[in-house]
Amino acid sequence: MFTGLSAFPLTPLTEKGIDEKSFVRLMDRLVAAGVDSIGALGSTGSYAYLKHSERDRVARLAVEHAGGIPVMVSIGSVRTSDVLHLAEDAQRAGVSAVLLAPVSYQKLTSDEVFTLYETVTRHLSVPLCVYDNPGTTNFDFTDELYARIAQLPHVASIKIPGLSADPLTTRQRLEQLRPLVPSHVTLGAAGDLAAATVLTQGGDVWYSVIAGLFPEIPLAITRAAQKGDARTAQALSAQLEPLWALFRQHGSLRVVAAAAEILGIVAAPCLPLPLQSLAGDDRQHLATVLEQLDLRA
Questions:
Q1: Alpha-carbon distance 113 to 118, whole Å?
Q2: Does residue 63 come out as left (phi exceeding 0), alpha (psi in the -120 to 50 range) or beta?
Q3: What does the alpha-carbon distance between residue 64 and residue 88 come to, in Å, rounded to a whole number?
């Protein structure tokens, strides 16, 4: 499950809690498209804003409605004891893998992060994907730390931020990392904007925000890259540039949430306060982009 396209859907919310019908609707879109795996409760799934019970419920819904597609869920939390409880719940729910970012309030040291992964992997019976997300965790992995963590049991993939859309730069970066990790540990793109380049320059997997709502074009990009057709992969990605521009300006979560609301796939508002999707002129511009790109419910 750590190759190809991994789609990360929203976790739509209402004032009463999880909007289960809308979440199942999102899952149905991913199953119908045939994505390679599903990343429920990622950053796009607002895991950090949800109660323990809500996260457990979403994990169970995801597994139940995945149609046999492997499901990965985030177990990130500030306290290691909470991470372990979330890991236990996720495994009991039947997930195929877990995703772990070093969530914190106080800035963590490299030794603290290694100890977190060492502790958690001792309690797992499913694979783990390392989530390097400095934009939210305020922690920067070094290559040395990648190498140490990758040797731990159950570590199967690393979700890497900041990879370049420049093919040469990305290829050099991936070639730099390959010798540091075991051969079974895959390297994946954490950002949508450079994903076509990552996949065509030696990356294994695209952990995708946009695929969680509109899986068809990301799936076509992925399949073209897997066939070695870099020209088609890049051309398809270029078609989505109006959307990528909005991602760069507003962040992917707010854009995708607004798109789902505009198309009526989820009820508005769907994000946990204080987060808000796009409004006003920005929302109208997104609606125009969706129409131009023929992205539909």
A1: 9
A2: alpha
A3: 17
pLDDT digits (tens, 9 = 90+) for 226-264: 999 999 999 999 999 999 999 999 999 999 999 999 999
pTM value is: 0.96
| 8 A C-beta contact, residue 60 and residue 93 | yes
Give the number of other Cβ atoms within 10 Å of residue 167's Cβ: 17
pLDDT of residue 96: 98
Amino acid identity for residue 187 in this structure? L
CA atoms of 209 and 41, how far apart (whole Å): 12
pLDDT tens for each residue of 95-109? 999 999 999 999 999
Q: How far apart are CA 130 and CA 102, in angstroms?
A: 9
Residues 113 and 145 sit within 8 Å (Cβ to Cβ):
yes
CA–CA separation, 122 and 276 (whole Å): 38
* C-alpha to C-alpha distance for 6 and 8, rounded to whole angstroms: 7
Residue 3 φ/ψ region, left for φ over 0, alpha for ψ in the -120 to 50 degree band, beta for the rest: beta
Cis peptide before 179 (omega within 30 of 0): no
Q: Is the torsion defined by CA of 264, 133, 105, 149 positive or negative?
A: positive
**Is the bond preceding 274 in cis, omega lying within 30 degrees of 0?**
yes
Predicted local distance difference test score (pLDDT) of residue 109: 98
